[in-house]
Amino acid sequence: MHETDMTKALILTVKDWWESQPKNIQITQVHLIIGQFTCVEPASLQFAFEAQTQNTFLDGVKLVINETPLIAFCDSCQQEYHPEIGLHYACPTCHSPMEDIRSGRELKIDRIEYSSACDLGFSPNAEPLKAG
What tens digit of pLDDT does each residue of 88-131 get? Predict the structure, then answer.
C-alpha cells in the first residue's frame, strides 16, 4: 500500500509549509490533484490521511482529492483520446501505441486552505478578555 508512504510524504511537505507560516494558522483543507494513471487509490489515500493525522496539527483537516482523467494524444491521427486504463491504451482510430500522455499522471498539492488566528473565533459582540 504505497498510499501510506505517500501520505507520510504529504504530511511532511505540509508540515514544512505550515512551520514557515506566521504563527496561529489553522489548516482546514488540503487539496490534491491525482491523475488516474498514477495508480493511487483515492479512498486508500483518504483512509491513510485520516489515520496518520490523528492527534497531529492536521487532525480534523479535510483532504480534498480531485482526480484528472487519463488523456493521450495520437501523433498519427493528431487527436486526443481517453485510453481505458488496464484494458486498451492504443489509439482507438489507428491503433498506434500510446506515446504522448497529456493528462493523468499528476500527483501534487493544488492548494492548502487555512484560517489565521485573526479569523478564528472572532465575534464583534464578544466580551473582551480581562487579564487576571
Answer: 889 999 999 999 999 999 999 999 999 876 654 433 333 333 33
Beta bridge partners of 33: 66, 108
- Whether 55 is in a domain gets the answer yes
Q: Please state at what angle helix 2-19 crosses helix 42-52, rounded to 10 degrees.
A: 50
Q: Output the pTM of the full model.
A: 0.77
Domain count, the chain: 1
- The residue range of the domain holding 61 is 2-69+103-116
Which residues of the chain form beta strands (DSSP E)? 25-35, 62-68, 71-74, 79-81, 100-103, 107-116
Q: Whose CA is closest to 112, among 29, 2, 52, 21?
A: 29
- Nearest residue to 102 (alpha-carbon basis) of 84, 82, 121: 82
Q: What is the pLDDT of residue 39?
A: 85
Alpha carbon 132 to chain centroid, angstroms: 45
Tens digits of per-residue pLDDT, 15-36? 999 999 887 789 999 999 999 9
Q: Are the CB atoms for 7 and 40 separated by under 8 Å? A: no
